[in-house]
Specification:
The structure holds two protein chains of two kinds.
Chain A (H helix, E strand, L loop, with lengths): L4 E3 L2 E4 L5 E6 L6 E8 L3 E9 L2 E4 L8 E7 L2 E6 L8 E8 L6 E2 L3 E5 L1
Parallel strand pairs in A: 2-11
Antiparallel strand pairs in A: 1-3, 3-8, 4-5, 4-9, 5-6, 7-8, 9-10, 9-11
Chain B lengths: L3 E3 L4 E4 L4 E7 L6 E7 L6 E6 L3 E5 L2 E6 L4 E6 L8 E8 L10 E6 L1
Parallel strand pairs in B: 2-10
Antiparallel strand pairs in B: 1-3, 3-8, 4-5, 4-9, 6-7, 7-8, 9-10
Classes of the chains: A mainly beta, B mainly beta.
Chain lengths: 112, 109
């Protein structure tokens, strides 16, 4: 299996621009998670989906952040407009039955 | 109170040492306990997974869970430079995963 696939791996953008991060979960996994990791706060859960339905988005920092999962094999996390404090590593992860979770390699975002 | 508390370190040990990494948690509903290893500029990878109190061994790694005291440990025997990474504990209810902030470990040759 190819694992969780994320794109882009690295993105540098200017403040105010829209950023779209993409994720393809492992085939057959029915839960998908978006995390943000920073040195100060560690891994923070932003949102998770179960069977393509958003279950908990309480971690989404503000309305500038939105996530979608139009089908079982694709999800996006969008930041509009982006701000320098959004600079972080964004991880997508998927889970088969809820007792293990598998991460992608991350999308390294820098907003200047 | 945070769901999971983990000493961030950093921890530096000589090659061959026994390493002990620890977490405490507050939620009695946690049923599964995982340890992840994260190398620099990589995603976390699942290292070990346990369900109940007690010990689980996998090669040089032993995961220990004490539900009565809400304490999770990971022991690494005969540590190697390749073990240098950040280790994150992750208890879960089965639906929600909670991660510690991670302990940075360096094994010096």
């Amino acid at each position: 299996d190819a694992g969780v696939i994320q794109s882009p791996r690295h993105e540098v953008t200017e403040m105010g621009q829209e950023v779209t991060l993409r994720c393809k979960p492992i085939s057959g996994h029915n839960s998908l998670f978006w995390y943000r990791q920073t040195m100060m706060r560690g891994l923070e859960l932003l949102i998770y989906f179960n069977n393509n339905v958003p279950i908990d988005d309480s971690g989404m920092p503000e309305d500038r952040f939105s996530a979608k999962m139009p089908n079982a094999s694709f999800s996006t996390l969008k930041i509009q407009p982006s701000e320098p404090r959004d600079s972080a590593v964004y991880f997508c992860a998927s889970s088969p039955v809820g007792n293990t979770i598998y991460f992608g390699e991350g999308s390294w975002l820098t907003v200047v | 109170q945070k769901e999971v508390e983990q000493d961030p370190g950093p921890l530096s040990v000589p090659e061959g040492a026994i390493v002990s990494l620890n977490c405490t948690y507050s939620n009695s509903a946690f049923q599964y306990f995982m340890w992840y290893r994260q190398y620099s500029r990589k995603g976390p990878e699942l290292l070990m997974y346990t369900y109940s109190s007690g010990n689980k061994e996998d090669g040089r790694f032993t995961a220990q869970v004490d539900k009565s005291s809400k304490y999770i440990s990971l022991f690494i025997r005969d540590s190697q430079p390749s073990d240098s990474a950040t280790y994150l504990c992750a208890p879960t209810t089965g639906n929600q995963f909670y991660f510690g902030t991670g302990t940075s470990l360096t094994v010096i040759p």
